[in-house]
Amino acid sequence: MYAVIETGGKQYTVKAGDKLRVEKLDAKEGEAVVFDKVLMLGGEDVKVGAPYVEGSKVQAKVLEQGKAKKVVIYKYKAKKNERKKKGHRQPYTLVEIENIG
């Protein structure tokens, strides 16, 4: 069985046991998280929501709160001695899907 969930403005296809990085959630490591915005449930019979499947939830456990690798932004204008360097590390939450229902 699999599901398509929405979190952080993005959609993810998940199965039980999957580990995935989602946009930062307000939960501590080891806590349980419930995703109730389920767009589709798949398996033997497919249920498609309009926009969400009613009464369905995906349960997950938070494994880690972290930051992704640094992305360096460098702006440069020729012949103007204008240079700008910035860096950004996007925060994420690593979750493991436990149950789909």
How do you describe this structure in short?
Helices cover 0% and strands 61% of the residues. It has 101 residues and is mainly β. The chain starts with a strand and ends with a strand.
Account of the 3D structure:
There is one protein chain. This protein is mostly beta strands. The chain has one domain. About 0% of the residues lie in helices and about 60% in strands. The chain is built from no helices and ten strands. The strands form three sheets. A four-stranded antiparallel β-sheet has the order 2-1-5-6, with no helix packed on it. A four-stranded antiparallel β-sheet has the order 3-10-7-4, with no helix packed on it. A hairpin with a 2-residue loop joins strand 1 and strand 2. The chain is elongated and about 65 Å long.
> Would you count the extended β strands for me?
10
Structural domain tally: 1
- For the largest sheet, list the strands in their spatial order: 2-1-5-6
- Which regions contain 5 or more consecutive residues with pLDDT less than 50? none
Please describe the biggest sheet, giving its number of strands, its sense, and whether it closes into a barrel.
4 strands, antiparallel
SS field, number of helical segments: 0
Helices and strands, in order, run as EEEEEEEEEE
Regarding quaternary structure, what we see is: single chain
Decide which structural class fits the backbone: mainly beta
Determine Rg (CA atoms, Å): 19 Å
Q: Please report which band the strand proportion falls in: under 5%, 5-15%, 15-25%, 25-35%, 35-45% or over 45%.
A: over 45%
Overall geometry comes to elongated
Portion in helices: under 10%
